Inverse folding.
């Protein structure tokens, strides 16, 4: 059907928010809700979140001011997205999870409504590391399961050596069972600390999602533990504690490149990887493909002697996916 604006007279987003984001959800009874930020001084002297709702598929939309935005941060690197959820077990139960700097550093908060958005609870801090410890959290996501249990997961730096975005991190989570008012103690989702890589300073290069199904957590995120961005899945049975972590990026196994750094020639050992429709590309720092060759052998060589010193990417592709490794060319003999 024809699209329409969600914000409207008395409930405009305003022109002060550079990149406003609405977060939508559908309740179990079919009601549409979307929460969006607003800052227009003709409407309110305070920045606020506005809840837009519709019970008739968007033909009519009602609006209400949900709550005032009380904390902000000027740091542009943290991923400060937020999420609105509805409880599948209760059509009137809405939850909003977000990042807030009430304590001086970015923490994970949640607030909720039990009356379809008419009123909201006092926000609860979800991460349980020491308050005001100057350690940053970000990249929050959450999910209800069918009977109302709740999982919240995020990127956490409580064990990092400093307080900035550009430091090591882990993925942590907390559960709140349907018959409880409190979150569980936080628990690790990742199996190791992940060193910072400056690719994460770019837009869209880190992300996560989490789902809770029958008391089993499925968390998916991107991290650079191997020196390049891969997608990881962690499955955790909350009843037994059993877990497994899987690299979802592709079905390509380990590739060895040596010597690396190299002065003239590198050897690429593809191990047991499938060679069907396989190729190797060498890509320079400008993103230009300077070598593109088919692969018919498990071991291959690339002559770098005619290329300047510096960093390159070696990309191996086959029918099952691709894998990219950094290659360093040193000065010639």
């Amino acid at each position: 059907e024809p699209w329409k604006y969600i914000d409207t007279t008395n409930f405009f987003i305003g022109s002060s928010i550079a990149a406003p984001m609405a977060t939508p959800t559908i309740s179990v009874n079919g009601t549409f809700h979307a929460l969006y930020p607003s800052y227009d001084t003709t409407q309110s002297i305070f920045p606020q979140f506005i809840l837009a709702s519709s019970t008739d598929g968007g033909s009519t939309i009602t609006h209400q001011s949900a709550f005032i935005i009380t904390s902000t941060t000027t740091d542009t690197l943290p991923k400060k997205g937020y999420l609105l959820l509805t409880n599948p077990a209760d059509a009137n139960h809405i939850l909003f999870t977000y990042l807030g700097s009430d304590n001086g550093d970015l923490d994970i908060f949640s607030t909720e409504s039990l009356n379809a958005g008419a009123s909201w609870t006092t926000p609860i801090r979800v991460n349980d590391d020491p308050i005001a410890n100057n350690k940053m959290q970000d990249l929050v996501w959450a999910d209800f399961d069918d009977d109302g249990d709740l999982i919240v997961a995020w990127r956490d730096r409580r064990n990092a050596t400093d307080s900035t975005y550009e430091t090591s991190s882990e993925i942590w989570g907390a559960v709140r069972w349907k018959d409880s008012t409190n979150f569980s103690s936080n628990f690790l989702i990742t199996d190791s600390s992940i060193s910072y890589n400056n690719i994460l300073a770019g837009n869209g290069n880190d992300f996560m999602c989490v789902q809770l199904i029958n008391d089993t957590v499925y968390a998916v995120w991107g991290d650079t533990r191997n020196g390049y961005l891969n997608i990881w899945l962690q499955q955790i049975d909350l009843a037994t504690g059993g877990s497994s972590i899987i690299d979802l990026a592709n079905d390509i196994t380990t590739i060895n490149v040596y010597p690396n750094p190299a002065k003239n020639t590198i050897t690429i050992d593809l191990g047991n990887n499938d060679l069907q429709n396989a190729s190797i590309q060498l890509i320079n720092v400008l993103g230009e493909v300077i070598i593109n060759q088919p692969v018919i052998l498990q071991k291959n060589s690339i002559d770098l002697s005619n290329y300047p010193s510096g960093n390159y990417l070696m990309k191996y592709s086959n029918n099952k996916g691709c894998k990219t490794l950094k290659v360093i060319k040193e000065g010639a003999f």
In short: The CA atoms of residues 94 and 125 lie 17 Å apart.
